[in-house]
Amino acid sequence: MSAETGRDLLIGVDVGTYSSKGVLVDLSGAIRRQHTVPHGIDMPHHGHVEQDADLVWWADVQAILRELLSEPGTAGRVAGVACSAIGPTLLPLDGAGTPLRPGILYGIDTRAQAQIEALEAEIGADAIFAHSHMALTSQAIGPKMRWLREHEPEVWTRTAMLTTASSYLTFRLTGEHVIDHHTGAHTMPLYDPRTRSWTDRYAAAVLGDRRLDVLPRLAWSDEVAGHVTAQAAAETGLREGTPVAVGTVDALAEGLSVGALQPGDLMVMYGSSTFFILVQDAPTPDPRVWSVGGAFPGQVNLAAGMGTTGSLTRWFVDEFAQEHETAAAYDTLFAGAAALAPGADGLLLLPYFSGERTPINDPRARGVIAGLTLSHTREHLFRAALEGVGYGVRHNLEAFRDLGADIRRVVAVGGGTRGHTWLQIVSDICGLAQEVPQVTVGASYGDAFLAGLAAGVLERDDLNTWVRPGERVEPNGALKPEYDRLYSLYRELYTQTRDTVHALGGVG
Question: What is the pTM of this model?
């Protein structure tokens, strides 16, 4: 499709767990400019993981947009903008749209376990699954809404809108309160996947006497949410009236960024956590994983997510490689891990350092390192961490296959794809090939494509020219017997230590 005269650029911005990134691209998908802003997370209590919506999310977006638009005349050439962010998150706003507390993050925040159990007792776990096509887990927003109502009644009383991170960014840009269907599906049990709409069937159990109008309007990710307001233009440098797409969570935007569009395409996102999105012809609901809508009308996704993967390697670098700058530390550790044989000389690690999401859905799980001796080094531990994540990936993919999901192609994206070591370990453990496109900028690149669709300057088929083939990582078949043995031990290690780590966490 042809762009409006002079509107030949697109912007995508993604707010992640530990950093935010933005890209300025032309209509062919060529990156003209990019900018990254690092940030952190807050953990005020055990199991609570938060970020400030204005000081982190919106401040990052402002800084990124001003950098991308710093060259004179750029703003007038931007045809559209889209944002994605970590999710599903929960953020209460007052009537003026001002955040009332920090945002409560996605499944790594496990504060609402008691509310999950209460909802299951009141409604029935089977009834919730039948209604939502998903079981309640730490990924669900509904129990966190109930937690907010029960634990912070003064905030709840002042709440006029309940939103999520990507929706808040769109709200700041446009003044429109809107959420995409993929994220909306996680607002369970308030979302009906059959009608693609909010439902008050179980609303009282979550919202008390509040009405569903506190929730955002539902829409698809490639629709126009609204247009940049005069205030947002002044705060960001964007042109007033620029179209803004509805946007989505970071993982779905990551999938678009690497061309995961056809049924059977599986995106594996190696980020702070590892996320999986499989495009399907028809839903295959299962309590272990998540059945949600896709980016476009009628699209179905099977999704899953681990809790601690890239954040585990970051923790390792911060705690055990302080003598190096961060980039050099990663290079040193990956090189050392690559030089070791599979199995890290008898070490096995469970990467459940913030509980675990799919497929075990155990917020009380904890990290375990088994097999330590005085001969093990830092590099042995690091390789064990990389392999532990690989076993977790295999566990999720086996859950997909158990329920009959068809995986035809695996495309990898995210910071963990840099270099070869980790990808090779995962391919060897799982016995599958992974494709890594030439451009692996990530979610912000997918956001830019959504911006082009919303603005009417791109069509979906244009993604075939945006995403260009790159590396293909093939599994080493000779390692299969050893990794099969170690994977079996990995599965046993969780079941054998589960009660112990639950007790250590003080939950009995």
Answer: 0.89
